[in-house]
């Protein structure tokens, strides 16, 4: 057998050499975390108008869900009716196509 030596494979990419004292930050992104601050969340009281608007929004969402459910139910009524009718017709026609055992 002959010993075939292959040339060394070149790297698929060249490594980037960053000079000392510089940081590699291609996008200029910075992350800053400060744990010494206190954040306040202010929650105001809900007045009668706000309560009415929230109830109206919740009622609208419930109405949309009910309309979608009713639409899905009404869509299946003809499908079930056709299946029942097909079963009845098959039951009536079955004796006509029955084979006599013999």
Write up what this structure looks like.
The protein has one helix at residues 48-97. The chain has 102 residues and is mainly α. It has a domain at 48-93. The protein has 1 helix and no strands.
Q: DSSP strand (E) fraction? A: under 5%
Unreliable runs, pLDDT <50, ≥5 residues? Answer: none
Average pLDDT across residues? 83
- Cα radius of gyration in angstroms: 38 Å
Oligomer classification: single chain
Q: How would you sum up the major sheet?
A: none
Task: Please report the number of helical segments.
Answer: 1
Termini separation (Å)?
Answer: 79 Å
Please count the beta strands (DSSP E, at least 2 residues each).
Answer: 0
* Helix percentage range: 40-55%
- Helix and strand content put the structural class at mainly alpha
Anisotropy-based shape: flat
Helices and strands, in order, run as H
Keywords: Membrane, Transmembrane, Transmembrane helix
Short synopsis of the structure:
This protein has 102 residues and is mainly alpha-helical.
Sum up the structure in keywords:
single chain, 102 residues, mainly alpha, 0% strand, flat, membrane, transmembrane helix, transmembrane
Give the arrangement of secondary structure elements.
Layout: H1 48-97
Keywords: Membrane, Transmembrane, Transmembrane helix
Transmembrane segments: 49-69, 75-97
